[in-house]
Amino acid sequence: MTSAVLALTMGDPAGIGPELTLRAWQALRANQHAPPFVFIGDCDLLATTAAHLGFDIPVRVIDRPIDAPAVFASGLPVLHQPLAKPAEAGRLDPANAKAVLLSIETAVALTQAGEAAAVVTNPINKAALYEAGFSFPGHTEYLGHLAGLSQPTVMMLACDALRVVPVTLHVSLQEAIAQLDGKTLAHACRVTHAYLRDHMGIAQPRLAVSGLNPHAGEQGAMGREEIDVIAPTLKALRAEGLDLRGPLPADTMFHARARQSYDAALCMTHDQALIPIKTLAFDEGVNITMGLPFVRTSPDHGTALDIAGQGIARPDSLLAALRMAGRLSASGTVHD
Amino acid sequence: MTSAVLALTMGDPAGIGPELTLRAWQALRANQHAPPFVFIGDCDLLATTAAHLGFDIPVRVIDRPIDAPAVFASGLPVLHQPLAKPAEAGRLDPANAKAVLLSIETAVALTQAGEAAAVVTNPINKAALYEAGFSFPGHTEYLGHLAGLSQPTVMMLACDALRVVPVTLHVSLQEAIAQLDGKTLAHACRVTHAYLRDHMGIAQPRLAVSGLNPHAGEQGAMGREEIDVIAPTLKALRAEGLDLRGPLPADTMFHARARQSYDAALCMTHDQALIPIKTLAFDEGVNITMGLPFVRTSPDHGTALDIAGQGIARPDSLLAALRMAGRLSASGTVHD
Question: Which fold has domain B161-280?
Answer without folding.
Answer: Isopropylmalate Dehydrogenase (3.40.718)
